Amino acid sequence: MLVQLSIRNIVLIDRLDVSFSHGLTVLTGETGAGKSILLDSFSLALGARGDGSLVRAGEAQGQVSAVFDLAPGHPALGAAEAQDIETDGGLILRRVQLADGRTRAFVNDQRVTNEALRAVTKALVEIHGQHDDRALIDPATHRALIDAYGGLAPQLAQTREAHARWRALVAERAREEARVVAARAEADYLRAAHEELDKLAPEPGEEEELAGRRADMMQAEKVAADLRDAYESVGGDHSPVAALAAALRRLQRREAQAPHLIEPPAKALDEAITALDAAASALQEALRAADHDPRELEAVEERLFSLRGASRKYSVPVEGLPALTESFAASLEALDAGEARLVALTGEAAEAQAGYEAAAKTLSQARRETAQALDAAVNAELAPLKLEGAQFSTMIRDEPCGAEGIDQVEFWVRTNPGARPGPLMKIASGGELARFMLALKVSLAERGSAPTLVFDEIDTGVGGAVADAIGERLARLGRRAQVLAVTHAPQVAAKAQSHLRILKAPSEPGRVATQVFPLEPKARREEIARMLAGASVTEEARAAAARLLQGAQ
After folding, report:
1. Which residues contact 325 (CB under 8 A, 6 or more apart)?
2. H-type alpha helices, 236-320
3. Rg of the chain in Å (alpha carbons)
4. What is the pLDDT of residue 90?
5. pLDDT computed for residue 412 by the predictor
6. Can you tell me the mean pLDDT for 108-129?
7. Of 92, 90, 89, 100, nearest to 117 (Cα)?
8. If 0-12 CB within 10 Å is exposed, 13-18 middle and 19+ buried, where does residue 510 land?
9. What is the mean pLDDT of residues 22-47?
10. Contacts (Cβ under 8 Å, ≥6 apart) of 461
């Protein structure tokens, strides 16, 4: 609720501090005393458009501060905390109006933009009057009012959750479809490439191994003839081994005759024969190693050509061909999986859409039932407010599927029997609109309301019985919320728990200032008598005022 309003240098107000309490508080005073200035100042603190003309003459700036005490978890506290404003259960709004038209806004002494200020105050105060645009006339708010009146938060939450799931699946399906379409465009290439590489079956390190084998075979062809000539000289038909062996045998037969002469050369010949045998064996081994099938060299060269051709074709090193083969296989698997996932997502999205539509239809039906109950409650309030022939109705039309459901909600009225109904703002006159708003607020009060409601002269132009009905309803609202009412009707003033009188008084030589006085019972009776009698208060007026106060109690 609003605890205090402090105003400095705004129009006729030089310095003013007003405290407020729970229940219904009325503000009364003669025309021109400054009631409108007080409300304009309050609106400025709430984020209304600034105007340099609001600054008191001769001053560089004016300022308005509004202090609110709120219950934990109030939406306004959440809006402030969302902007990193420390709240500690309360809000102090301050707006500085400069004479050049600029303004500065603060919440709990933290500088904020005007948009941020309005975001915080949106849930703090509702102002209802004949020409005020902050009342319940905006169709954008009507659906939320129906939901609040019907206690439809669970159904609304279910619908929002179902809508979010549906839209998320639709978005995921769209992304998957884009991937699949892109993959399909390359599918033929992927399959042909994979088939070619899979058939080629490249192995890691294969190029290096084949190149080594090819080099060995090509070199072997060059040395094979020399190896054969060398073998012929050592172990072939031209080998000296046979002659050397025969010479060795002859020497060995003579060894007994002259051992000291025969033994050294015999030993040397034996070693030579052994060495020649070893050389022949080595040459035979070399010849076997150098001996290869020419078709093997051809096969190796063909394999190298195929591998290097694939390397050039796919722009990767030969060593990278095995990995590329696996990559193509994975892409084909992903395409197949994507096709399957796309089918699955299509089904899931359709199922989610059906779930959303079911939740939205359930919510829509509950809204229509709630609308009927609200219409009945509001219409029951109209006759005492001198709107006997009027009718209030809630129009619910289908709209495109959204997070809030499938309903477009707007309050319509018919002001006279036989007249064509239409939107509340377009059909009702200023006075009628204010009374429709009062009837609506009274009906909605038990289902939630802003903590502070302001009604600006909604009793203008009505008689005593209607004013009494207005006062009764404002008092009923005051039991649920803090209600501030600017009124000229004594019947309304008598219903209040607190009474503030606004008047102009001299503040300094040649200047006047608006002042606000809380009225005690005797002064309050005198003020209501003045409202009944006018400038000259009679005893009859005082007696009538006493009866009004007694009746209100």
Report:
1. 194, 197, 198, 201, 202
2. 241-254, 259-290, 294-314
3. 51
4. 85
5. 93
6. 88
7. 92
8. exposed
9. 90
10. 431
The token pair that represents 405 in the structure block: 């459901």
> What amino acid is encoded at 388 in this protein?
E
Burial degree of 515 (CB within 10 A; 0-12, 13-18, 19+)? buried
Q: Are 378 and 443 in contact (CB under 8 A)?
A: yes
* 515-525 mean pLDDT: 93
What single DSSP character describes residue 73?
A: T
User: What CA–CA distance (Å, rounded) separates 312 from 303?
Assistant: 14
Backbone angles phi, psi at 51, to 5 degrees: -155, 125
Q: What are phi and psi of 501, to 5 degrees?
A: -105, 135
Question: Can you tell me the mean pLDDT for 311-317?
Answer: 89
Closest by Cα among 142, 147, 172 to 159: 147
Task: Please give the structure tokens belonging to residue 55.
Answer: 């600054």
List the structure tokens of 332: 């084909």
Instruction: Print the SS3 string covering 143-188.
Output: HHHHHHHHCCHHHHHHHHHHHHHHHHHHHHHHHHHHHHHHHHHCHH
Buried/exposed 308-319: b ≥16 CB within 10 Å, e otherwise: eebbeebeeebe
The amino acid occupying position 62 is G
445-466: b or e for each residue (b if 16 or more CB lie within 10 Å)?
bebebbbbbbbbbbbbebeeeb
What percent of the chain stands above pLDDT 70? 96
Beta-carbon contacts of 394 under 8 Å, excluding residues fewer than 6 positions away, are 142, 146, 371, 372, 374, 375, 409, 410, 411, 412
84-88, 129-133, 186-190: the lowest-pLDDT one: 129-133
Q: How many CB atoms lie within 10 A of CB 192?
A: 11
What's the whole-number average pLDDT of the chain? 87
Position 238: which residue type? H
Average pLDDT over residues 280-291: 79
| 239 DSSP assignment | -
